[in-house]
Records
---
Amino acid sequence: MAVEDKVPAVVEWLLDGEGKDSEMSARLQSRIEDGLKIPKTDKKALKFLKELANDGDHDAQCMLGLAYEHGLGIGLSFEDALKWYRVAADDGDGFAKGCAGELCFLIGEINDDEGLIAAGAGYGDTDCLLHMALDCEREGTEESYRKAMGLYEKAAELGEAMAFRCMANLYENGKGVERSYEKAAEYYGIAAGMGYEVAQCDLGYLYEHGMGVPQSYETAARLYSESASKGYPRALNNLGLLYHKGLGVEKSYEKAFSLYMEAARKGDADATNNVGLMYQHGRGVEQSYADAVIWYGKAVEMGNPKAGYNLGSMYRDGEGVERSYEKAFELLTVSAEKGDSSAQYLLGRMYAHGEGVETSSDKAVEWYTKAAMGGDDDACFSLGIMYHDGSGVPQSYEKAVEWYTRGAELGGLRSQNNLGCMYKDGEGVPQSYEKAAELFARAAEEDHPRACYNLARLYFDGSGVPQSYDMAVDLFKKASEGGFADASNELGRMYMEGDGVEKSDEEAFRWYLIGAEQGDPDSMNYVGYMYNYGEGVPQSVEKALEWYRKGADNGCKDSQFNLGLMYSDGEGVPKSDDEAFGWFLKAAEQGHGGAQSNVGYMYEKGMFVERSCEKAAEWYLKAAEGGNAIAQCHLGRLYEHGEGVPQSYSKAEEWYSKSAEKGNEGAAEALERIRSVPPS
């Protein structure tokens, strides 16, 4: 029939308004063509439709539902709309089922009516199905996870992308089903193919980490990019991480920072933390501790544990803020209790060293252990150190090995190196140079300087590996380049003595100088020595003094002794028994035999100090027991003449003999002399 001048609002809406492209519009058109005549006024039309609806007419029931739902010629009422939709839906009308399902979800959400949500799910509404499934997931039992999977499957059959993504998530985490990264990738792939940005990001993560699919940073970057182009914050952050590390894309701190910032502005907590990280280290943006503190603070407010660790570290170190162990402790505690292993580790350090809290080995072990079990290799290393040294815990090489092993398995280079030392020395494990070499090599491959040095020593000695001076030299050089001064010093010794390399004073000086500049006191002494005697470098007493003094100030007993000699002889400095005695005493107190002998001599002769043969004998004895031939001879003389010690030819003979055995001619002559003295 043709609609003339005036038509009811519901008819107009279906034929010429928003509903003209709907299934109901086509159904109405067909009924009109078949002779259906609807009154022209709203009141009469609705009365007419109700009569038909009460007689079971599905079209009329649906039209009444539309009228109430959209307020077409009648007051808007979702409840009345749903009533009429459900009448038709329960009688099998497909259009009515769709409408009823949507309204069940809408009214159910508004009124928190789970019964309506369930009814909507029964009509096949995907929102209702997803709502119920998510509620099941939140219950957190295996049975509820299985129910959730069933509901997701129903929604997936209806083409709902989110349902495929949620099914994938259950497979990824093994909830209600056997864990399967392959099935997770399959369902993420379906949802991603439907353009669902969340699934695109999830699938990218699987490709990034090679979970259920071949590992591919390039594919991960492509998927993250597709998701990020739709503004999904997590994808923006993850793509930023790839640019940050140069994985699958060309490394660019600037691009990473831009992506982090975009995600942060969309409320992503991880990205907000990462913006702080970039400001802190000046990557992709001008370095600014102040801005780092601001962004870390924002991420902390969003509940990000890693940001709590980062901000806590800044308060602990006084970077961008006034140092405050108390504030650091507060922030780290919150993050640690949320399970952040880095915060747990640093909290353990604060307890171990009494930073802002009372020192507590028990608390340190507690937090180190939590961090270690959470995969923090630094915590494993710290526990290994504590048990190895018996620091705050009962000493146990076996426990040290246990924690070093865990740290080594986590890729901790320091743990790998220290575990290698345990095998080298047979502490807590059967001694094995081969196992030590294997562990040192793992860390050395990652350029760990100390491990390079330790492996070099094994190659030098041929312990656990084929003897090779070339390998030793290469590894010593690698360790030196990493700033390990002991390696530089060792290279200096090798070239000075021609031990495994062609002797070269010039090369020896070069390596000693590198070691000295790296802060090694022994190398400082050797640089001074070579300047003093013009070996490998033009002779310079002034330079010798400069380096001896640096070594002495850094606690090198050889430098202290040599500096004492220069003051004693007036070499390059005004002669001064005062200065000489002071430096000899410093070296003597560290066990330097020559210095102990000289201190004894100065006491014996009363040089700068009040003469005391008793003191002289005391220092000579220390040096003599350490094997110093000169001190042994002096001590023999004191016993021979009974100066500072009871006179004793037998004691004199004992010490003269030891000195003579070391080639001291004066001692040999004295020994011959006292042996010719008749016993008294």
---
Amino acid sequence: MADYIGGSGRRNNRITQRRREPDVQGRRRISSSDTGTARSARRLAAEKKRVRHQVFVAGGIVVVMFASMITYMVSYSATHKDELMNNDYNGREELLLAKNQRGKIYAADGQVLAESKTDAKGNQTREYPFGKLFGHIIGYTPKGGSGVEQLENAELIKSDISLSEKAAYDQKGELYPGNDVYTTLMPDLQKTASEALGDYDGAVIVTEAKTGKILAMVSHPEFDPGNIEKDWDSLMSDTEKGTLVNRVTQGLYAPGSTFKIFDAIEFMSEDMQKAMAYTFDCPGYTTIDGVMINCYHWEVHGEQNLEQSFANSCNSSFATIGTSLDRDKFAAKLKEMMFDEDLPYDLPSSRSSFVLDDSTSTKEVMQLAIGQGKTLMTPLHLNMITAAIANGGEVYKPYVVDSVKSADGTVLVQNKPTDYRNVISSDVDKKMQEFCREVVTDGTASKLSTRPYHAAGKTGTAEYDTNSADSNAWFTGYAYDDNHNEIAITVVIEGATGSGGTNAVPVARTIMDKYFGYTPKAGEDDDANYVHVVNDKDGDGVNDANEGTSTSSDLPEKTVKLNMDTNKDGINDAVDLNGDGVADAVDTDGDGIPETNVGGGATDISAAASSASSASSDASSAGSSSASDAASSASSDTSGTAQSTAQNGAAAASSQTQQTQGQAAAAAQQQTQDQAAAAAQQGTQQTDQSAQQTQDAGAAQNADNTQNDYVNPTTGDAQGEAAWSEQQADAAAAAAQNGAGQ
């Protein structure tokens, strides 16, 4: 029993063990399964976490991008509201104009410059009471708009009157009055500027020097903004005149001698002591590295310091200065003075430009120094620099909109002067003010010297037509008195037949007179009463530069008032410089250039003509056509034709019996009437020799004619340059000397 029991127990134990084994194995399998499930769960949780992270990251990126987009749109809308409003795809303007009448534009004195009239059908018509006078600056509304009309379009089509006022208009069934724009423009000054510019194409801008307010802006040719839609096709097809181009802000011109402002500023900025000690003995031209450049009309200025070089606009001196400047510093200064950058002006404007680096040739640097070559400026830019000189070197942002008001008079926008940048140090600026004043008191702008207000500035002339005397005449300056704010004025005249002093200064003078309330005395502004006397201060009939002297009495002359009436017609036609009762120069056509030899003693222009005719006739009867030609040329020089020839560029070179520019200027300065007649009477051999010399010199001139740069503001095409080769210059100078001797 025991065995049985015992055996049975062991068996049972084995059975139990066997039974347990599956349980153990089962438990092991369950445990293994549980472990796999846990791992799967963990993997699933990790995957979900990863996905959630990606979702969060992506969502965050989207939110940031959306927020950035909203921020950008809000910012762009705030800063470009006018562009958005004026966009053709934006229908909001039409909706506003359906209930608002476009606001008015006023002048500084309250006169209406632009207004809308609404007919019975609700159609609005824009009217411009001054016609074409303000065409460029006020602009027009069709075809995308321009000028102030475009600049303030968003304000003009809105109406910010009160709700009660709008209700009153609703009851009457009328459109709400739009907001009004008040400008800084002065109609009387604008009218004077336009009339002074006359039939010439060109530009005039007048600003308050210490605020940047634009008082007048004239661009010729003009257009009538009221007829813009009717005239649009013809205006767009006429690419030659560029009528729609605002020449003040978009016209690019070679600045000519007005660029000497920048030369002088850089020279003094680099080394004031050196600049103040600078002297230059001007023979009428200079040669640097084999390249020659001449002064205007080959005028001999003699010994000049920096101030005199500036006042007399000596090309030779400034070409020398320009090539001595540090190129890197000069280029940096020009950029500081707003070349190669957008001007701080709200309406469209062109960039002024220059070329100056290590690879720039000596010839190009000389051209740069006198404002020629590849140098281009807008009148607006030059005016800003001129104003800066007037007010201590500070440039102010020019602006034409003074304020915006609702129709009930509530001020919505009030613009104030904005100081943009200082471009001239105080010590340099003080000197520049002195230099600019000297230009008026004893230099090329002396036609302003008689005025009671204080005027200063710089003239410039840029010849551009190879076959004529045409040039662009410049004046830029400033003026003030005790009762008016200081103004800066810049004038450029296209196709002028004379210098900046002869053509542009009188325009500026007329505008200044209007602003300062000055009425010229009878005959005071008759330019026939003035003459520019060249290089003969002692009145002895000999060019002072050839007398071997360098005393102050032999410095170049300025424009002086005629004080003699040689033909007893009641009009002064000559000047007696030394008080000996003999006319030293005669100017009968009012161009500022004497028709008789300076110091020659001619007392009657008709007598000079008669003498010339007689000399020519005598030579012709001797049987020598060459003698006749030479006598005619010589006597013509005496009566002033030589000076005219000197202005005519290539025309002088094309005629074999005329002298070159250099000859003409020298002959006009040195020959007397008696010399001309004597030369004509010396016979066939001598006059044949003279004719041959003029032929040779004319050929040399024709080979490389002296010519300055001009860039058409509408096409950007540059023409010509102002340097001669040394060989050609020497040939011309020698021929001129020989011709004068004969």
